[in-house]
Amino acid sequence: MLLHDKLHCGRYLLTMQGDAFRPWVMGVLNVTPDSFSDGGAYSTLDLALSHAEQMIADGVDIIDIGGESTRPGSAPVSVAQEMDRVIPVLYALRDCGKPLSIDTRRPEVMREALAAGADMINDIEGFRHPASLAAVSDSEAALCIMHMQGEPGTMQADPHYDDVVIEVGDFLAERTRAAREAGIAAQRLCIDPGFGFGKTFAHNLALLAQLDALQRRLQLPLLAGLSRKTMIGKLTGKPIEQRMAGSVAAALVAVKNGARIVRVHDVAETVDALKVWHAAA
Ligand code: 9MG
Fold first, then answer.
1. Is the pTM here over 0.85, yes or no?
2. What spacing in Å lies between the alpha carbon of 124 and ligand 1's midpoint?
3. Residue 132 has pLDDT above 80, yes or no
4. 107-115 and 79-93 helices cross at what angle (nearest 10)?
């Protein structure tokens, strides 16, 4: 089996072969106070758990739990705040039968998350923090190595590349090399161009069109996160709460162009679309 068709993900081995050939759907579980504003009837933990149950019923393959908003312009939260948000959710979901990913760039949170049962670490900084690879190297967890130019607070101010596909590929090659040198097996790695993270609309479109070039160069499973992003808003003219159809279409394009994992908010709709695509492709 080719390296980009499987991912060793903590307690799970995700494979994509023969009859099992279907891209993996990663569902977004944001545990930030603003992501569950219901007027206070339920706790953030209860709401996160019922959201996770719904995603499982809808056919999710990986649940990505995040306690820090990384939208353009967002302010960072403290390590303690981030842990208070995500660690209880990990403990509560650890036996849910699905791989649990933690979306964090803090080595301290990575370590606690692994102890709490995380199967994957999704780092929008591509494990550039000097302590992050050491935090995960002794585990069995998968690593999602994402590219970002700049910092969430300012990254959309003036992104610049001479050749975005080459430069994103160079970064991912360098970070996967660093992970391998830290003793992390290639079967634990996946890569992500980081749509919307320090990229203009034109950069995002070029990356989406040439995902297969990145995938061929790195020979690792490629994750694409386009769901509800500004690029979808720009293409459809729709506000964030009306971007579901555009996001599903973008997920299909990403898969057609080589993505093995799609990170989405609308799990049920994406799973259905991929079933149809798979039957007819
Ligand atoms: C946390 N997060 C938000 N967008 C993302 C994307 O496109 N990829 C990954 N890996 N994480 C993301």
1. yes
2. 6
3. yes
4. 20
